[in-house]
Amino acid sequence: MSISADRFWRENEAVLAEVMPQLQVQRDNFYSQPDWDVYQLHYTSADGMWLFSWLSVPKGDGPFPVIVRMPDYGSVHDIVYTSLRDRAVVMNPTYRGQRRSDHSIQAKYPGLLTEGIGDPSSYVMRRVFVDVLRAVDVLYEQNLAQIGKMAVIGAGLGGSLALAVAARRGVVDAVAANTPMALGNPLAFEPGLAYPLAELNDYLRMYPDQRDAAAQSTADLDPLNIASQIIAPVLLSVGINDNGSCPVAFGEELASLIHHCDLRVYHGASEGGGHEHAQIQMSWLSDKLGLG
Question: For the whole prediction, is pTM greater than 0.85?
Answer without folding.
Answer: yes
